[in-house]
Design goal:
162 residues, alpha+beta, Arc Repressor Mutant, subunit A, Alpha-Beta Plaits, 2 domains, 4 strands, 41% helix, globular
């Protein structure tokens, strides 16, 4: 893979903060010309460093319109931890639309999931689909979020001189 310079890192940092910026606005923020910015961002995307662009919705502003919903952080321990069993569970979890995030972790439980459901009956349906129906799930420990103090999907990038 090619190396990244200070301009590349500044572009990636700005894109993480606000990917909706116009090319001209992005170029101004990182102090390069618009054509240079366009070419560099295209290269960063071609390298696969920008996985995808999404809109992050405001839960608190959506709540009066859609309901608060229920978010759970769930620890999963499997009975068998061989690669086939781990991969099988991971594939099922990732395919479920209620699962927002899925991590294989160590030590401790085998997985940590972030699950979003409309309400407790909705969460119980997810639990039935993913945990109860799977004979290889040994232990499930769910923690229900009562308040989110911080959510930031950005990756901290090193600061390099240009």
């Amino acid at each position: 893979m090619e190396s990244l310079d200070a301009i590349d890192l500044a572009l990636l940092d700005q894109l993480q903060a606000d990917a909706s910026l116009t090319n001209q606005a992005l170029a101004a923020k990182v102090h390069v010309s618009a054509p240079t910015c366009l070419r560099r961002v295209a290269r960063l995307r071609q390298l696969g460093l920008v996985e995808r662009q999404v809109a992050i919705l405001d839960r608190d502003k959506l709540a009066p319109l859609l309901g608060h919903g229920l978010q759970a952080l769930v620890e999963i321990t499997l009975d068998r931890q061989d690669d086939q069993a781990m991969t099988a569970f991971e594939e099922r979890a990732v395919a479920d639309t209620a699962v927002q995030q899925c991590y294989r972790v160590s030590p401790g439980p085998d997985f940590i999931l972030v699950v979003q459901a409309d309400d407790m009956p909705g969460y119980l349906q997810v639990a039935q689909r993913l945990f109860t129906a799977d004979a290889n799930v040994r232990n499930v420990k769910a923690f229900f979020a009562v308040r989110r103090a911080k959510f930031d999907p950005r990756i901290a990038l090193p600061k390099r001189g240009a």
